[in-house]
């Protein structure tokens, strides 16, 4: 065996960090995968408390004030409200009346799926401009 002699003026030997980083990344990946499989199978069984002011029967029945105003948009771009075709001014009156009665009420737009989204977005903007602050688009 032959040993190399270190010279007095030689530099300190360098440590190659690449293999150590590979091992650390492998261990880290292993722990991430294991932790994802362990947390994904936990099921928490929680029973929420009921309100004291209302019984369970009152919580199950939707009140008249909480029903959303449903606006339809047919395939031929007609606005439908309560199964009748209406124009924008009639819709604006209904939206304002609904908003006055139900400040936290929600308006749901049900549009035909064959319509281009630009027409649907235009009606959503029009309803928002009428004073509605909670407008949703219904999807299946």
UniProtKB/TrEMBL annotation:
Coiled-coil annotated spans: none
Membrane topology designation: Single-pass membrane protein; Single-pass type II membrane protein
Entry keywords, A to Z: Cell membrane, Membrane, Protein transport, Transmembrane, Transmembrane helix, Transport
Pfam family of the protein (one): ExbD
Domain of life of the native organism: Bacteria
Location(s), subcellular: Cell membrane
Name of the protein in its database record: ExbD/TolR family protein
Lineage: Bacteria, Bacillati, Cyanobacteriota, Cyanophyceae, Nodosilineales
């Amino acid at each position: 065996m032959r040993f190399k002699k270190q010279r007095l003026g030689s530099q300190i030997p360098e440590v190659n960090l690449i293999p150590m980083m590979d091992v650390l990344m492998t261990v880290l990946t292993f722990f991430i995968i294991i932790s994802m499989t362990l947390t994904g199978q936990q099921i928490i069984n929680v029973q929420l408390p009921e309100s004291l002011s209302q019984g369970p029967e009152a919580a199950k029945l939707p009140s008249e004030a909480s029903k959303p105003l449903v606006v339809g948009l047919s395939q031929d771009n007609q606005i439908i409200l309560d199964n009748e075709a209406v124009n924008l001014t009639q819709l604006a009156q209904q939206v304002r009346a609904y908003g006055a009665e139900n400040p936290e009420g929600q308006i749901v737009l049900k549009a035909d799926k064959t319509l281009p989204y630009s027409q649907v977005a235009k009606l959503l903007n029009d309803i928002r401009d009428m004073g509605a602050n909670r407008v949703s688009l219904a999807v299946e």
